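Worked problem 6 (solution included).
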Amino acid sequence: MYPIAFHIGNFAVHWYGIFIGIGFLASFGLLMHLKAYAKLTSDQIYNIAMIALFAGVIGARIFYVVQFWEQFSGRGILAILNVHEGGLVFYGGFILAFTAECLYAKWPTVRRLLGMKEKQPADGSEPRKDISILALLDILGPAMALAHAFGRISCFMQGCCFGKPAPQGFPGSFFKMADTLIGPEDTILLPKLKEAEKTTAEAELGIILGKDCRDVAEADWQSVIAGYTTILDMTEESILKGNDFLKGNPRYLTIVKNFPTFFSFGPELVTPDEVPDVLKLEIQSVHNGEIHAKNTVDHMTHKPARLISLHSSIQGWYAGDVLSTGTPRAFHIQEGDIAECRIYGPDGFAMEPLKNPVIDLKKH
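Solution. The predicted structure is:
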C-alpha cells in the first residue's frame, strides 16, 4: 500500500484525502447533471451536497467512536475530534447523511433554521418548497455509489481496510524483565507515567522450554519443550505509536513491554501429549467476558516450530524459558476491566482460562 502521495515540506499529503476529495467532486458533478430529473435548482443541489459531506463525516466519526469507545475513553474530546488520525465508518456516515437529506427535503422549516436560503430561479418562478424524497433518492443513489467507489480506492491506497502484507524474515521479538511477571488473578497495574495513555492486552499461546538447547531443527522443536500455557501480554501502546507527549518509535518496543505486571501466564502447564494438534488450537482474546478476537495457531505468520528453532540459533534456550507466540488481536484495558486468555482445541480440548483484573495507578 502507498498511503502518502507526496510531501509539501514536512506536511504529508495522503492518497486517502485525495481520493475522498475526487469522489466528492465527481458525485457533485453527477448531481448537477441529474438535477433536471429531480426538478431541483443548482442552489438546492449545492445544499444537498454540503449536507451529505458534513453529515457523512460527522456520522462516520460518531459511529466509529461508539464502536471503538475503548480507544477514546479517558482521552478527552480532542481525541474524538482528531479525524485526521483515522477512524471513519461508512455506515454511520450513510445513516446520518440519509437522515439529514430527508429532513432537508421534507421540511422547509428545517432549511430556514439551517440558514440555507435559496435564490429565486432565473425565470422568476417561486423556488420549490418541497422536494420529493423519492426523486431525491433517485439521484443520490448513483452519486453515493460513485463517491463510495472512490472511497474504496482511498482505503486500498491507505491499507486501512485491506490489511498490510504479513512481515517477512524474522519475527518482531523482545524480552520481558522478571518484574513484569504475574500469575492468574494477580492485578495488572496501568502505569502512573503521564505518557502512558493506552495500555493493551493480548492473549497468546505460551510454550515452556523443557531443556537447555541450541540450534534446534524445526522438525525437532517439540522434543525440547515441556508444554503449553495461557498468556496475557501487555503493551503501553500509546508510547509506541505516539501521543500528545512524544512521537512514536518502533525502538520503544522493549520499553512499552516491560512495565511491572505486563506479563501474566498460567494457571496450568499442559504437556504436548495432551494437545491433539497444536496448530489447531484457537486463541481467544477476551475483554470483560466477551470475545474480542480469536484465531488459530496455523494462521500465525511465524509458527511455533519456526520460533523455537530460530531463537535457539540466536540466544539459545534454557529450561523454564517461556516463549510467547502470537495473538489474534490486542484490546484496550482500563480501570476495573478483566483481561482473559482462553485456548480451545479439537475434540473438546480446553485449557484453564487465565484471568487478570486491571487497576489504573493514575487513579489511586
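Discussion: The chain has a mean pLDDT of 87.
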